[in-house]
Structure formats: structure tokens, C-alpha cells
Amino acid sequence: MADPESEKQDFRLELAQQVFLYRSTDIAGLDKAQLQEQILQTIFSKGLAPYYEHICGELGWELQQSKLQEMQASNAKQLEDLAAKIKDAEENLGETEVRDALHARATFLGDTGDCEAAAAAYKETEDKTASGASKADMVFAQIRLAILYQDWHCVKRLLLRAKTICEAGGDWEHKNKLKVYEGVAAMYSRDFKRAAELLLDSIATFTTSELFSYTSCVSYAVASSLISLDRVSLKARVVDSPEIRSVIGRVPALEACLNALYDCAYREFFRALLGVIDVIRGDMYTHPHVRYYMREVRLVAYNQVSPAMERVGTHSRHSVTRLLCMVCVSCTDSLVLCINLWKLGRCECTPVLQPQRHMLPVHVRQRVR
What we know:
By secondary structure, the protein is mainly alpha-helical. The protein is 74% helix and 0% strand. The chain has 20 helices and no strands. Helix 10 crosses helix 11 (214-226) and helix 16 runs antiparallel to helix 17. The termini are far apart.
């Protein structure tokens, strides 16, 4: 198997991430002018005429008619050449050559961002394709095009099609690819438990470099596992996994957060969590769920420490809860939870909490039961 880090990610997904960053309003330090330049450079160099019209309309950019017409003319010329090759293959060559010519046209239409024409071309190619693996690859290509347009309804529909193909005659490699694509869709849909299961299953045999890098796959798997696996499963499938341990160091905040949570080092956990949240916020698949993720991962820590507090003495319990409250005192959600623990008799941080409580906004104080 080729090195999973050596193969190139689909340029359309790189472009989708850049567009996401340009749209973002809660990520600090972004140079929007530079991002716009990079986006337009990719669009013009790849001839993405339909996407250019789409993105200019969405983001309110000025549409350069000369550039658009130049791309349309170039694309039309290449489509004429591809049509000639298809005709020649139909008249003079065999079925395999016809299928290859049709596939080349479908790929070109997908690469230029023409969703409707690409879908029709892929359908025509699929009708002349016998291999389940080749059919699955064509569906995966359409999924990546749908992600470029952030059409997740189309992604889910295509995933059902890919699953049917793989179950009917796909090999192990394409079945494993399907798990990664399904894991991404599950993560985007906030089903982190299913995402963790799918991504963890595919790490050892990862071949989906066109979607994202191996390091990214491991990062998504670990981040999803933190809020969905129990402590025993986290230890067996994540903490002790040789595949994960070999690359998790490339994302220091995630590695520190994982180890601190398992080692019950809560001060280090909350410090590392800030870095993890930055990673979650800066990714187009996980950004919509950053507040949900922040809440859930903290609850994992609180639920982990709560039973332990019931088995230790008053002094130790006071130290642990005081630490939790002091670490997250800047976050109203955490502070509200700490206040509720205190009211339930599980937190004795009255000196820490009482001065803070009356300073909370009214809508936050109302959440304190």
C-alpha cells in the first residue's frame, strides 16, 4: 500500500476548506484577502466556471465576465475533443475504450464543477461499467463534488448508492473507503459515536487520501472518540493503538488532551482542550458543532471525576472541584455546571463560585437550577 500521506488530496476539497475559512466569522488571524486570492487562483487555473458563478453569487464577489468567458471557451474546446474521442472509440475501438472515453468526459465535467452534466456523464459511464470497484470510485468522485458545493443531502443520497454497490460486489479497499466517507458524513451530522466507530475501523487500512490525509483521519477518529467512547474502550482502541500513537503527536493539543483525560490530569486536560477546540473550529466538517463538542467533552471530564469525588475525603473533593471551577472560570457554560454541582452537594467551591455567580449575565443565571 502506498504511503497514505504521499498522495494528494482532491483539489476541490482543499478549495472547499478555503471557502469555509473565508466565510468564517469566529476564527482569528485569517487573511481574507489572501484567501480570496487563493480561491480565485484555483478556480481560474482549474477552469471551474460553474463554481465561479456559484461562489460569486454566494459571497457577493464581482463576477469578472472576461475570466468566466475564457474558462467557458476553454472547457467547451476540451469537451469537443473528448466527444471526438468517444465517437472514435464507438466507431473503431472496443467497449473498454468507449468506457474509458466516457469516464474521461465525466471526470472532466466533475473537475470543472458542473454538477448536473457530471452526474449525467457518470450515469452513462456506469451503465457501461461492470466492475463494482470502478462504479464505487465514480460515486466517491461525485460525493467530493457535492462536498465542494456543501450539498450534504446529495452526499447522503450518494452514500446509499455507494453502499449498495460495495455490498453487491466491492472489494475490501472500497468497502474501507466507504467507511471513511460515511464517517465524514456522520461527523458532519453530529453523530460522533458512529463517526468514531467508522473511522477507527478504517485507520489500519486507510487509503482515502483523496478525501484527507492519514493524520486528519486519525485526528477525526480521536476527537470523535473523546466524546463517544467509554474509558475502557478509549484505552483499548485509542490510547494503546499503535497506528494512532504513531501520528497523534502531529496534533499536539489533541495528544495532550487525550492523555490528560485518560490520566485524570484535569488541569492539563482543560488547558489542552483550548487547542483542540481551535482545531474543531477551524475545520469545515466539525465547525458547525463546536459548541456542542465543547460541552460534551467537558461533560466527559465531569462525569469521570464525579464518581471519584464520592469515594474520597472532603479535603480531596474540595481540591478537585476547586480545580475544575478555577480552570474553566472564564467559560460560563462550565461555570454554570460547576454551580449546579455545588448546589447538588458535589462541589464545595463556595469561595470560588459565590463571587462569580452574581456577575453572570441574566440569561446564564437563569440556567442555574
